[in-house]
Structures are given as structure tokens and as C-alpha cells.
Amino acid sequence: MPRLSVPFVLAAASLTASAAPALMPMPVEVTPSTGRLVVDGSFHAVAAGPANAFLEAALARFQARLARQTGIPIGFGQPPARPATLTVTCAAPTAPPSLGDDESYTLDVSPAGAQLQAATCYGALHGLETFLQLVTPEAGGFAAPAGHIADRPRFPWRGLMLDVCRHWMPIAVVERNLDAMAAVKMNVFHWHLSEDQGFRIESKRFPKLQELGSDGLYYTQDQVREVIAYAAARGIRVVPEFDIPGHTQSWLAAYPELAAAPGTYEVGRVWGVYDPVLDPTREETYHFLEALLTEMAALFPDPYFHIGGDEVRAVQWNASPGIQSFAREHKLEGAHGLQAYFNQRVQKILEKNGKTMIGWDEILHPDLPASIVIQSWRGQKSLADAAKQGRRGILSWGYYLDHLEPARQHYAVDPLGGQASGLSSEEAARVLGGEACMWSEYVSAETVDSRIWPRAAVIAERLWSPKEVTDVDSMYTRMESVSRWLEWTGVQHRAGYGPMLDRLAGDMPVTALRILADACEALGLGPRARARKYTSLVPLDRFVDAVRPESELVRSMEKDAAQQSPEALARLREQFTIWSANNARFQALAGDNELLAEVKPLSRDLSALGATGLQALGYLVSTQPAPADWLAAQNTEITRMLRPNAEVTLAAARPVKVLLEKLGRKPQP
Amino acid sequence: MPRLSVPFVLAAASLTASAAPALMPMPVEVTPSTGRLVVDGSFHAVAAGPANAFLEAALARFQARLARQTGIPIGFGQPPARPATLTVTCAAPTAPPSLGDDESYTLDVSPAGAQLQAATCYGALHGLETFLQLVTPEAGGFAAPAGHIADRPRFPWRGLMLDVCRHWMPIAVVERNLDAMAAVKMNVFHWHLSEDQGFRIESKRFPKLQELGSDGLYYTQDQVREVIAYAAARGIRVVPEFDIPGHTQSWLAAYPELAAAPGTYEVGRVWGVYDPVLDPTREETYHFLEALLTEMAALFPDPYFHIGGDEVRAVQWNASPGIQSFAREHKLEGAHGLQAYFNQRVQKILEKNGKTMIGWDEILHPDLPASIVIQSWRGQKSLADAAKQGRRGILSWGYYLDHLEPARQHYAVDPLGGQASGLSSEEAARVLGGEACMWSEYVSAETVDSRIWPRAAVIAERLWSPKEVTDVDSMYTRMESVSRWLEWTGVQHRAGYGPMLDRLAGDMPVTALRILADACEALGLGPRARARKYTSLVPLDRFVDAVRPESELVRSMEKDAAQQSPEALARLREQFTIWSANNARFQALAGDNELLAEVKPLSRDLSALGATGLQALGYLVSTQPAPADWLAAQNTEITRMLRPNAEVTLAAARPVKVLLEKLGRKPQP
What we know:
Largest sheet of chain A: 8 strands, parallel
Number of domains of chain A: 4
Distance between the termini of chain A: 54 Å
Strand content of chain A: 5-15%
Shape of chain A: globular
Oligomer: homodimer
């Protein structure tokens, strides 16, 4: 456990009081002192020590970020007269970022200047992000509070997986998310490059893969190199995933002979798990994979290489007498045995290329070498099982962003929690960290940022900060700040909301629609899949796509409803009044607009909630209790309203529910 | 005057009722018919006739815009089965866009498809923008209403001038504004490239100009060629301006020997008109200008070339015995005579390079040839004078966006109005159009879009649409829609508002600040210059920089206050309630944040206005009149509140003022 010079929760509290800076991930040690370092146009950061091109480039980006964040023209005009404001010391990197790099740093801020020291430049990058988070406007203008911060990550593998296959994600999307990842100290970009619905990278050896398997939407190898360099400059490793032997229908569109059943195949358009898989019994399969993976292994410098391995359907394998007899001959038990055989062959190809194999839970099998890494999407058990077998693993179960669960749910999941909590320290050390996963069935390039951020930031904190940093209120307060701060990285998670609502409103003023959207929360994978038939051709331009996964407004109202100070009740009354008047305006706005037809019942419910809320506030201050039958009827309505509707939740029902619960507990006279 | 198949005002009304599309500039003829053309994933536009690479590229951009605007994946997956949705006919351009091109088009939309026909592809581009404006969500999803549109511009010169010198504007800013210009059918980008505060373009002949005159912030010649090609693909001419002989201090930083007085010179940092000017008497000046202008004339293909010529101070000329004796020798009358001599020399250089000279009012002089073009920033008189002398001109007086005047003020200015209204038809034909001007003393790359758009769109309408299109209510309704629609071009005029307010709020939730900002209007050049000492190093990150030039909220409240329907009064009551409660929350948010200190009095006034508004609403529905002394006191307060404060206007006072006026007219019992 990290040494703490002051309890970090106390430090956190002192730093987040009123307008003080919100740090996320919370550093290991924060020791505030007095005063502040003013940031103005004379600010300049310098690299100490010998020439260090990596750090110079990082400082140029840092100064540009600081200029955007503050609006101050920094580094413009005459060279500043005063000494360097921030001095950074680290040795120039001699290799790309790699697993286990020393990422620690110390940052000392005083009114006279700041010192950032790190063993590696990858650590220094983290310290620069912490410095940016420290800068806020206060009495003397923009400034960073004085203090000492010593920081280092709890886990060495802190990743984000992005599925660029179900919906295409252009390079700009990837790069702006790399900037946001770096801002919250994530260090692995897991690039899910092939799927049933698309093969998204150029192969020079097998160009039909992208020509027939991608609808023309793929990265060239030059672009891939650009992304790898972009990531490395930000201390982020790039781990490519080629998902085999399942999830390969786009490969089969180009090379049907690789399939375990004869036929012609088309790029997938619908969501779900497909039957077609690679044939694990033919040598031609391995010749193909050896050539392809050798090509790709040369393109990606990181020693870890992801082969997917999830959700392999046995339908084709079971139906093939040839495959079945092969299995008997090689004493392979069922589909899992066949897959393990396949994985062993693939692992040898990767090993020849100097790569360590990583795959989803399903690849776990005693026949595979101890060196492989397991990525668990099914729970901490497989991670614990692997660790006990001497294998390393990372957690993604509980970190699936596409489910659009609230941040606190991800925040509560610890890689060493649940069934991994009993591991010995030696075993626990094999748990390398985790990855947030963004599957792209229900996101497009336009909406994906808003489904990753800010929730991925709390997963980043879980993987970086001491295990004991678990206060949910502090997390939400800081997450809201950091969400706004992340905009200066260029990520678009907040930028799309207004335009998407404007689009839905057509030429009508949008206010009534926005009031409704602010009170709703978008639902994720499960409820969306059940609501209607989606394919890659269905537009993601509806109400649910604009609405955010979590409502800041509703969260603040839940707090107000629980707290019930006079100010809190006044705020609630205002908001309920707005809601109760909103439906008439919304219906006028919606007219016969087909895109808003599904939202009309939600709008009626919102106004009803406003009216109920106002009544509940009345009963709260009244000497008379709320009538029991009224309470019962309202509770029934709330329960109904909290059910999915138009693929969103009417989150507005929650603060009203809190008030009704209070009324229910009020003693009868 | 254009032929109108139906009165356009009627047509406009029918098209802008409820959720119908808002067109801006309003086309010459709009003949609605029944039905609509549905836009879905099978939409595809095709170029009719022989190969036309220009049009193909334009259609690819058009489809991408349509996809962004609707959120529908267009042109993705299988080729569409149905016939082309939009067929475009025009001849491939044989030359870059030029003054007087036929820009007319006709657009016929039916449920079965749409036909766009134009004599030139530049006309077709305008038709594509009109089609995009037609597409809105309605009963069948996204669709364009059926009808016939025939359209052509009133004036051939419809420009935007951008000053990239006082504050630097990166290429991305220029390009996104070119996209927005094209969207409202503007066709001239006037690029103000040199100023006292910066020489912003690479000269290979005189590299010291950019090396010593730009702080490193300039366009390379390759970038300039990129911008010219980008503009030409959008039907926009690029007219460069090199402002001489005044406004040249940045030139003198590199070449002090060109000045009319000996000395050393530095790039300007402060705003205003500088004394240093070029020496018009030395042959070396003309050798230098001949070499430089010849280099630049080759870079810019357009035949028009702007030499500025505004605000030439006579201080250095008057103080120089050599210059004064030169003037006597050549019989040049005063500074204007000297400038005319200088302009004649420059004009001959440009003529040798095949260029027509254009300059600001001040260049108007009988000794210059009839071919020169006058850009009037001082009024319609100089335009009329020039036209009577057989010279052509364009109007910019009344179109200065940096003054942050309301859109209706620009809208009321007609190039053929005022002292130009008496011109004969032959003289009037010499008035080529106009240009909106964006001077950049008080804008940065972050804020400039929000000061250009949407107000430049109403100037675009003034220059394109029939003279009789002057209804201000219709203009505002359509401008608000078109402002939202412009976001799909990529221009950032709405995007910065939220983040800039977030920046001011630091780590505090921003709502109370946003409520205040929504009720204010930013002031422009004059009030800002009087408020404090600005230089190019002063950050533009304050409240005034975030606040918009016109408040949509306040405009709607003024309407409500005038109309006084029960719904209108309910809306006002809600808003006044929010305002009256806002100050306590704002003060808590502002704390000791220095950036918000200047805004605290505004916040107190806003809450007072909320209270006054609520009282006024009470008196309106009461049988008792408002007490005269109360009314007088409130009116005094309103007058005070409408004065500039923190470089903004508290626009919120206006709807309250309307209510007070109603109360004042209410008969005493």
C-alpha cells in the first residue's frame, strides 16, 4: 500500500472545497501548502538537463493546452523576463512506452515556481496533466495552489478498448480519445480492429480483407503508424486486436475458404454473435494467419498482441464431420478443446514474432503457456483462476461503457475485488490492471465520445489511485469538473449534445426538448437491443443518442431532495415548475416530427412529475401528512415511469421518489 | 428587379410556418407544391452529363453534410436500389470563380426526386445549399418539401473580410468560415493579410517580413494556395489585402528604411491608428513594392487586388522636409495628394501584373483610373460619388461585425440605400455589392466565429435576396434556425459558449453563470476600447468574450412582453423567477474568482430585474395601476442598467422595460 503523507481523503477534501481544483485520478500523496503559482502570459515550462526532444514536444503540447484552458496567449510575443514557471526533469525515453515503465512523478508547486520530477518522461507526462488539473481561476486570476504531490499508479495496465468495427471511427476520433486518455493517465489503447461487421486495417499481404471486408472504411498502414506514434508521444501503448476464430465474418467475405463451412459470406450488418468461424483443422488457415499476423506484428511495436477469442459459436464446427473427426483424432474435447488447439497454433505464430498473446477469458486453457494474458469480460473469477495458474490478467468485466451504467457502478469494481480478493500478494501481482471497453453497436463517430467520457475517467481513477479512494460523492464532484476540463483536450463528449438536440428540433427552438433531455438518461446495449431491430445502417440520430448516460441535473436534485435545506427546496420548486409547464411547449415543438413522436409520452410524464414534485413539496412543509392513497398512486406512477421508454430512463422520477419516500416515513398525526 | 412567381414574402411565410424549413438568403422565387422528398440512407445525388470532377467533389461534400445534418449514414453499404434522389446539371468550370459569373439555379423538388439545374457549377453550389436548408425532420422523418425554386443573386460581390493580423487566425479558422460563407452563398473572401500588428504571409522575396513582422504566426505560400483552392471549390474568390502606405508598422519592423521617418520599429501590440507610414517619395519604396506585389500577384489568381489605403496619418509626412518639398515639386495637395501619387504608382505595378486595384474610400481621387474599385467603410456617399465618376464600389459601412451591433441594424443597410438611392440604373450597376468586415482587435481564434455568425448571414441575405426582402421578424426567425444549421458546416460559432463559461466557473457548476450570460449581450469595438487598455497580449477569456452579441432569450422575452398572451406571461413569470433567485447562487459560484469579480454587479441587477418583472406582471393583471413613483424609480433603474457594464449590456432590462411602458400607458382609474 502506498505511503500517505496526509490521508488522501482529507487532502482531496481540502483540494475540492469550493473552487479548488478537482484532481482525477486522485494522486497518492497530496500535501497542500500556502499560496499559489499565478499562471499568466509569461508562463513558460522548460526541460531541465540534456536535450530531450520527447519532452520538448510534450511541453509544447502542454503549453498549448494551458493556453486553451485559460484563454491566455502563452508563449506569444517577447520572451518572458522572469525565470521558468515550471521546470521538468526526466531522462529522454530510449524506447516506446512499455508495460511496467516507472510512471511515478513528484510535483512541487510554490508561488515562485513549480518543479516536476520523474524517473521517466512517461511519468513526467502524468505530472503535466496533474498540473493542468491544478490550474483554476481564483482571487489572483488563473493559478495552481501550492503544495507537494507524490504519485504513482496502482496498476501498470490502464486501458481503453475501442471497437472501430461495428461503427467506423475515423482517425480523428481515435486521436482525440488518446488525448483524453492521457489526460486521466490511461496508458493502453486496445484497438479492436476486426469483427463480423468489418476488417478495419489495410493488409498489403491480403488486400481483399479491407477491399471486401470494410465498405471502404479502414485505416491505411501509414495511418496506423501515425496513431502509434501519436499514442507513444502521450505515453500510451497500442495493443491491436484481431478477433479469431469467431467474429470473423468480414474476413470470410473476402476469403470464404477460411470458414468452417462452405458458402459465401457478406460483411455483417446486424448485431449479435454470428455462426461462421474459422476452420481450425486446415493447415491453410494457419498459413494464412501466419502471413497476416506476421505482417501485423511488424506494424505494431508493442510486445502484446490480442487475438480476441471470445464468443466462438460451435455451430459450424459441430456440423462438420471433418472437423469432428479431427477433434477425435487429436483428442480435443468439444469446442473449447478445438479452440485451445487453434490458440496454441496461433500462440506459436505470435511467439515467433516476439509477441505475447492476450485474449478474452475463453482462451484460458491448461494447454496454453503461462505467458499468455487473460482479459476477463465475465468476472473476477477467471482473473483469479488465471492468477492461481501463474497467468497474468486484466479486468474488463464491470468496465463495459456501452452498457451506459452510472459511473458509481464502474467505480465500485476493483480488479482485486470479488473473487480476486483472496489472492496471495504474489498472485495479486499478476493482475495487471484493467480496461474500459467501448463496443460500438450503439455509437457512431458522432456519439462515441459522449459514451466514453466522463465515465472512463472514474475507471482510470480505480486503476491508478490507491484502493482506498472510494468516496462516491467526491468522485462525482470531481468527475463533473474533470468532464468539463477534458473538453480542452479536444474530445467531443459534451460538444455534440446541443447540435444533436437542434437536429431533432428541426427549425423549432429547442428549449422544451432540452429540458426533457436534461431529465433523461440514455440506456445501453441490452435495452436498446430489445427495443428495436438495429443494424449498421440504422441512423443513430434519435433522442436516445443525444441524451447523456447520466444526468447531472437529476443527480443534483436527488441530493437536494435528500438534504431539504431551504435553498435545496427552492431549487427543487423551480425545477418542478419548469417541468410541469414543459409538456405543452414540448408538444407544440414536436408537432408531427416523426423523430420526436416516441418522446411525447416521456414529456407528458415529465410534466406529471413536476406537478407531483410540487405537491410533495407542499406536503413536506405542511402540518398534514400526505394522504396514503395519493402516495400509493404516485409511487405506482414512479415505478412505471422508471421503466425503459424510448430507450431512455426518465431519471427525473428519482428525486420525486426520494421526496415520496420522505413523505411515507413522516409520522401520521 | 427580379420576376416573382409568387410574392416571396408569402412564400417565405408559408415555408417558415411551424417546423417548415428556414431559408437564408431567401430565394427570388419559391413556389411550394404538395408532398415531400424523403431523405433516408438510400439518398444519393448524381451529376448529370459529361464527366465533371468539380461537381463530383462538391456532391461528395454535399452528401457528407447531409449525413451530418441528419445523422443518417448516407452512401454507406450496398449501392441504393432506387433512382437518383437528386440530379444536378451544370457544365464543368473552365476557370476559377470570377466576378460576374452566372450564379443562378433552379431547384425542383417532388416526392419522386429533385432536379437542380444551373448554367455554371458555381450556381449549382448555391442550389445544393438551398437543398440542405430545405431538409428538416417531419412526419415521415427527414424530408425536403416539394416545390419550385428559381434563384439568382442581386449583387455579384458578396464578401466577408477577415483581419488575421490583430489576432492570428490559423488555417482551420479560415477554412471553416469559408464553409459557412458558402452555406449562405457568399462568394468573396477578403483576406486582410498585413497590419501594424502583423505581416501574416510568407514572402520568399523578402522573408524578413514574416520573420520579423509576425511573431512566427503567418501562412506559408503552400497554405495560401491550399486556402485558394479550398475557396474556389466552394465558389469563393480570394482577394488579398496588403494595406499600404499606412498600417505598415510590422513591415517597418523588418525594413525600417521604408518608413517616412528614420528609426527602429517594432510589431504593434496596441490597437489604434499608428503614425509610421511608408515613404511615398523614394524610388526604393516602389522597387520594394514592385517586387513584393509581383510575387503576391502571382500567388493569388483573382484579378482584384486590395491595397488598403485607409487611415493614413500625415504625421511623418508633415514632419519630413524632404517629403514636403517632393509634394511641392510634384504639385501634390496635402497628404491626400501624396497618397494619390503613391496609389498611382502602385496601381501601375498592379496593372503590369494584370490586377485591378481595390482600396478603401480614401483612395478615391480623380487622378486614378476609372477601373479601380472603392470599398466604402465610411458610408454610401463615397460609393455614390465613385459611381457617378464611373467607378465601381462595394459597401462595408454598416456591415462591421466587430461593432457587435444587432443583426437588424446590418439588415437595414442596403448598398443602394441612403445617398446611393438616387443613382441612375447605369450608375447603380457600378455598385457591385458589399462585404461584412471582421476586424480582430477583440476576437481570437476561439471567439471569432461567434462574432461573425449568425449575423453575417443576414448581410449575405441583403446582398443576395431581392431588395424587398426586409421583414425583420422573418429575418430573426430564419436567422436563429440558420445559425443552428450552420453548425453542420463545422463553423464553431455556437460551440465555444459552454466551454468558455465553464472556464470562467473553474471547478464550480456553471448554471448560475450561464443564466446571467444568457441575459447579457457583448459589446464591440467602441465600448471595449473605452473600458480598458487592450493589447494583443491581453487574454480574451473574460465574461464579455463568452457572451453572445445578441441574446435569443431576451429577444423572445421582448416578444412575449409585447404580446402578453397567457402563455407569454407564464413564460415571463418563469424566467423572472429564475432571475430573481439567481444572484445568491451566482455569488456563491463566483466566490473570490477574479475573472467573475466584474460581473457581480450585473448579477445583482439581473435578480433585481427578475423581482421588478414579477411585480410588473402583478400590476398588469391587477385592477390597480402601478404607483407612479414605483414606475419612475424602476425606469431610472432600467436606464442605469442598460448602460455598458463589464463591457456587456444587461439585455434582460429590455423586456422589463416593455412591461413598464405598458404599465405607464395603463389608464389611471
